[in-house]
Amino acid sequence: MADKEWKNQLTQILERLSALEEKYDGMGQDMLSYLDGLYYSNGLTYWEYIHLESLLGLQVPRTPFQDEIIFITYHQITELMFKLIKLEIDNLTQDKGEKSEYHDVNNWHKRIQRVINYFKHLCNSFDIMLTGMDREEMRKFRMALLPASGFQSVQFRHIEIMSTRLVNLITGIDPDPEDHSIEAVYPEIYWKKGGIDLETHKKTITLRQFEKRYDESLIDQIEKFENRNLEFLYQNASDSIKNDEKLIELLKDFDQHINVYWKLSHLAAASRHLVKGGKDIDATGGTNWKSFLPPKFQKIIFYPSLWTEEEKENWGKAGVTKYFQQAITQQWMK
Ligand code: HEM
Fold it and tell me: Which residue among 51, 70, 142, 220 has its CA within the 20 to 30 Å range from the CA of 20?
């Protein structure tokens, strides 16, 4: 190596060493020991970095049916996407005083666009559930997971709580506009109402299991996000942020992707697998899925102030054209 190059290389090495020294000094640690560690350690491999063997060991079918592994893996993929969606909302909404990301509209653009990207991916990939599994196999292996259901996806509930005020997660008429306390509203939340068996009027075992496992932590999260959810922060933002047209479009796009498009993709899968010879098959989670799942019945709207009365009235119908139409034209709904 030429002298000049070598001197340059040496300067860079020394700069890094002094930065390392400062770092370890700050930790009260001896840099040389760490350099020894670096010297003796094996280089990192891809399979170690992403814990490949652990990851591929997590798909454990309960039946001998081949396609069950597709069902498990796609739920896991969705949960990993939900984790990334929560990360974006968490970063945007964290209170760091003046440094809080939500003070800058560009951060809203960046984070909400990423959230929409994840949901677009989930909506477009739902074909894996729709046409990517053998229907007869699905109808058999799903019996082995009773009474479990995606209804028990706690991360999906987290995303709802982080994105809007609790009162927007009630279907239909607000039982008591005077009392929007967590104690009054939480029992009215749409999925708790959906988890009631229509014949016995009792909570399904799927809902009871879920409440036993998560009610306490969900209430903690509701308290944590009461003044930190996206809708609250948007409503209390400066006028320049609130009136930002790009942000308004992004929030509306997010609202439709999670509460209409994804729900319709999911409903198409349920309709494909849970209707046989024109008859509905009972859901593993015990809801009356045909009246619970359609977004036009749930009417969950995260940002009601951004939609006209007519748009809210037709909620979940418009989306039909985009996702459901494909299902009908491609005959996989028959
Ligand atoms: C063939 C595929 C699928 C079928 C047939 C199906 C069926 C159902 C049914 C019938 C329900 C209503 C609750 C019940 O009574 O069980 C439900 C709810 C739910 N499922 Fe699925 N599901 C499928 C795939 C998925 C996937 C891949 C996910 C991803 C995590 C998922 C997440 C959910 C969620 C979050 C709910 C609650 C929805 C809401 O509250 O509006 N499902 N599913």
Answer: 51
Q: Which residues form the pocket of ligand 1, taking CB atoms under 6 Å from any ligand atom?
A: 74-75, 78, 129, 149-151, 153, 156, 191, 263, 266, 269-270, 273-274, 283-287, 289, 292-293, 298
Map 37-55 to HEC letters.
HHHHCCCCCHHHHCCHHHH
Instruction: Give the whole-angstrom CA distance, residue 271 versus residue 222.
Output: 32
Is 104 a residue whose pLDDT tops 50?
Answer: yes
Please tell me the number of Cα atoms within 13 Å of 332 on its side-chain side. Answer: 22
**110 has a pLDDT exceeding 90:** yes
- For the domain spanning 69-332, the CATH number is 1.20.58
**What DSSP state is assigned to residue 293?**
S
> Residue 204's pLDDT is what?
95
Model confidence pLDDT, tens digit, residues 222-248: 999 999 999 999 999 999 999 999 999
- Buried b / exposed e over 92-123, threshold 16 CB at 10 Å, is bbeeeeeeebbeebeebeebbebbbebbeebb
CA-based nearest residue to 65, from 147, 144, 130: 144
> Which of 59, 151, 218 most suits a substitution to test ligand 1, by most atoms within 8 Å of the C-beta?
151
Tell me how far CA of residue 6 lies from CA of 13, 15, 168, in angstroms: 10, 14, 64
Q: Is the pTM of this model over 0.85?
A: yes
3-class state of residue 203 by DSSP: strand
Alpha carbons 313 and 16: distance in angstroms, whole number:
61
Centre of ligand 1 to C-alpha 11, Å, is 58
Q: Centre a 10 Å sphere on the Cβ of residue 11 and count the other Cβ atoms it contains.
A: 10
Report the nearest atom of ligand 1 relative to the CA of 288.
Answer: 15
Ligand 1 centroid–CA 269 distance in Å is 9
Q: How many angstroms is it from 283 CA to the middle of ligand 1? A: 9
Q: How far is CA 221 from CA 81, 173, 189, in A?
A: 19, 24, 15
Q: Where do the domains of the chain lie?
A: 3-43, 69-332
Closest ligand 1 atom, CA of 300?
A: 41
